[in-house]
Amino acid sequence: MADSSFTPRNILIFGATGTIGSFITKSIVSARSEFNRVAIFTTAPAAGSAKEQFIQELKTKNVGIIVGDIASESDVTNAYKGIDTVVAALGRGVIDSQILLIKLAASSDSVKWYFPSEYGTDIKYGPASATEKPHQQKLKVRAYLEGDEEIQKSGLKYTYVVTGPFADGYLRLLGSPEAGGWDVKTKTAWLLEKNNKVSLTTMKDTGELVLAALRHPTASFNKALKVNSFTTSPAQVQEEFERQTGGSWTVHEASLARVREVEEEAWAANLPFATGITLRRIWAEGGTLYEKRDNDVIGEPKLQTLGEIVSENVKRSA
């Protein structure tokens, strides 16, 4: 059991080469000297792939590479040997595979702390959250982690790092523009409920916030840390794009009523961006806002600004 004197020393990361996992991994590796061991659990990369290149880079930074099958009890059990802290960053499609990871962590002789793949929208923001389609797999993992009798007996600690939407993705248009977003090349914007505030976290900062939580274990144990980079509105984002790009933009405005219609149509047609529309509707409804953030609980790490993430978006579009 992790107690008040616990300090994480041996870290294992699942999903380390994925979209958000790579940012979390980079942040942890940037503090490599603070840990005795940092390792990632991954499948064998394809030769010449970006994943292989990233893994080779990690090897040069004294990161252990464990190749295995996330669904294999023996592979995961062996990977846990000597590990005290597990950080999961699995994609939405395999979130429920964490049930096995948590079960084996609880029965491990060494694992004391588990970070589930929670990064993103708060799945327990309010009563309506329980029925939102994109939340169901994460809710299943939380229910197991918090409610299983054997897990409770083990004393396994957990921390949910709840970041709200990733600013990097929030700025981009989806398959249905009514859900909001910006296209720098055409200078076209769709503002969903333009004056409604939304809390955003950059992907880079997600990694920094996980690292900050690792540095503050007792303040993070068995909590949902509500953290973010900054809070803004679509209108303020538009002002920043105009400030940085100059010239005139074509600006459309969208309402929650219209987005709800588009959302229903997308789910009925089984469109791949249906989840994204639902999430953006939740954000526009205020589902990322709190009276108080938990950034200070984990040391108030230095994070990116709206201006910086807009600048990155503009440069990518050049």
UniProtKB/TrEMBL annotation:
Q: Which GO terms describe its molecular function?
A: oxidoreductase activity
Q: Which InterPro entries match?
A: NAD(P)-bd_dom_sf, NmrA-like, NmrA/Isoflavone_reductase-like
Q: Which Pfam families match?
A: NmrA
Keywords in UniProt for this one?
Answer: NADP, Oxidoreductase
Q: What Gene3D superfamilies does the annotation carry?
A: NAD(P)-binding Rossmann-like Domain (3.40.50.720), UDP-galactose 4-epimerase, domain 1 (3.90.25.10)
Quick check: keyword NADP in the entry? Answer: yes
Task: Tell me the domain of life.
Answer: Eukaryota
* Domain NmrA-like intervals: 10-250
Recorded hits in PANTHER family, A to Z, give:
ISOFLAVONE REDUCTASE FAMILY PROTEIN (AFU_ORTHOLOGUE AFUA_1G12510), NMRA-LIKE FAMILY PROTEIN
* UniProt-recorded name of the protein: NmrA-like domain-containing protein
Provenance organism: Talaromyces rugulosus (Penicillium rugulosum)
